[in-house]
Amino acid sequence: MKKSAPSKNTLVAAEVTSCKSTFMLTFAVQIIGIDAWQDSGEEQLSLGPYQQAMKLQYQLYPGQSFELDILIWPHVAKIWCGSQYGYIRTWQFLEERWLTFSIRHAFPVRVHNMINHIVTVTCTMGSGSLGANAKNDKNSEVLLPPLKFGERRYFGPVLEAEETNEQFIQKTLWNRVQEHIPASYLDGIFDTPFYTTDVRHQDTILSEVQESILSKCHAVEDETFPAESEDILINKGKDTKNPKDKKKVVEEHKEKFAIFLSGDNILAGAGRIVAFETIGERPLEQSSIIVIISSNNLPAEDDLPIIFVNVETLHDIPIQELKKLRISQIFTRWKIGEQKHDSMKQNVKLSNNIQINDHHTVPLQYSNASEITAFFLDNPFEIQICGHQSKSTQHNGSLFGNNKNDLNFGYALPSKTHNPRLDEEVVIAVTKIDASSLAKQTNGFVRGEFCVYPLKSSLVDKDRKDNCTNDVNGIKQPIEPDAIIQPSVILKAQMTLDASIGVVGCRPHRLTRRYLRFYCCARDSQASNSLLQKILEINRNAVASEDINDLLTGFALDTIDEIVFYVEGQKDGPILIVATLSESYPEMSSLYSCSDLHVDRIYTDMLSSDTPFYVLKMLVPLNTLLACPQVYVKPSLPLPTKSALLKIGRLMASKFNIAPYKSEMPTNEELNSFRLELCVPSRPHEDNLISGARN
């Protein structure tokens, strides 16, 4: 391919500022009305008048509109963009003929403008809409050079003239020098069509073309099960002779054909290749068009950072259970910071896989970007699987009616699935993604197929302080959420969700105050007492100096067989002394990381209490309680006590190989209930020593 004289729109790396983003679009256009069933075997082709023409128009960004004029011959095509042009080959795929080309653009982009923009590709067939350069085009001959090793026939180059010796020498020398020049996203040509050279774009466009052709042969729509209300089920099968009761056939409104992609989807596809979507029925006279796009330096260095979430496919859903509960639609919901996002509702079909295909971007402000990303260290990122329950009604008999069950009040028994909350959005399950790596870097990406778990129940927070033991143990306290589907159903289905989350953008401001966490377990009572005395001494000095920020919060638990420490404190504070002291005792197994900087403490309430650091001594060994089956039965222990017991048991079993999430640690309320039910009552001047563990 050879281009004409340089254009003003052609961007060179030295002429472009660092605040520009680049986009690469690849088009695959089906050729209609030209009979060419095989690729040309000749190297030299004489071009006459073009046999077909079309125009493509699109606006990538407000104020950035582009027009492409395509002239088509049986074996080659010529694409004009303004005063720039390029030649490409046409190729045969099964019974259809296609042409493929790419084009790059570079211009400044702001996230807030891009996220609300919709890119629409418009196609106009015929030569009447061509630009002046395309209409006045004069073509004579082109050269199809032999394919080199590794080149695909679909994306081979096209030359206007045979390469001279001088050009060959210049190209050889340039390739040797180019290897030692640092690559930049602004390298190459812009606003000029060229044959597709990017391997990722080649693989993606071939996959899209293959899927487009095969979908025509296997266009079988999945049947959906209707969520019928009970009054319809009661009257089902009854003949109605009244013509007014018969269903009227209404013609469906046909949507206008369009090829589009939202700016939100482009931002969420950072680092990936995203295909444009199509709606409506394509006119028969219009060619099938496939468009894919990738971006670079988006968002730019001087723009806002972003967090993007992509939710793809939900696998292995329990269809029969959803049908029994009249859940006819499924969608996902997640929250980042103060922003919540719900995906489009998808109908539950007979297939056990549902395509969610939700892509959303959350712009971050410089003031709170670090705080939002730091929350990924405390808890996993959760995506809720939600459903929409259809309304369920009972048939009310009429005294003077002629329908079935009239005059027989109470004949219809209430449905087993009757629930006053029907016709509402309900949470079915939740997916948890470990996104802790995103809190430690400015650009990161987590992608995979993640398991779906049942909802975790917990006590509703009270608006008052605990006044008695019943308040501490959560007696008669409501539990949330109310599970719609039993956890056993979720676990048996083994659902998975394809999802990804990433952080892209400039470096956010650092937090002014962060906290570190220290975990430790030991069997040596002497080492444990030394560590405990040091913690209590630090807290006494902090109270004396009235510096609350230097207090160390957490707990020390003597399980009789082993001693567990959890300490949290301000970064660069006295917690460094505790971590250094633990290194003096090799028998202690500790976990401490200076890079895990958290936004807040887990036990913030301890700062205002009389004992900022709890010392707990169990009455019965922890392993004995965990081996007792009655512990797992709900009435045997209060819910906060049982929750704390199981969490501590999991922490002991993990040996602190990895730092637990905040949700995996017992809460302050659970620790109070645990201390009340399973620990030795604290005594003055004696609760500062741990004596249960053996040397």
Describe the structure.
The chain is α+β, with helices and mostly antiparallel strands and 695 residues long. The protein contains 15 helices and 29 strands. The strands form 5 sheets. The protein has an 11-stranded antiparallel beta sheet. Strands 14, 15, 16, 17, 18, 19, 20, 21 and 24 form a 9-stranded antiparallel beta sheet that branches. Strands 28-25-27-26-29 form a 5-stranded mixed beta sheet, covered by helices on one side. Strand 6 and strand 7 (96-108) form a beta hairpin.
Characteristic terms for this protein:
single chain; 695 residues; alpha+beta; Immunoglobulin-like; Alpha-Beta Plaits; eleven-stranded antiparallel sheet; elongated; disordered N terminus
Summarize this structure briefly.
With 695 residues, the protein is an alpha+beta fold.
Q: How does the helix and strand content classify structurally?
A: alpha+beta
Task: Tell me how many strands there are.
Answer: 29
Overall helicity: 10-25%
What count of domains describes the coordinates?
A: 3
- Helical element count? 15
Distance between the termini: 80 Å
Sheet with the most strands, sense and barrel status: 11 strands, antiparallel
- Sheet with most strands: strand arrangement: 11-13-1-7-6-5-4-3-8-10-12
Rg from C-alpha positions?
34 Å
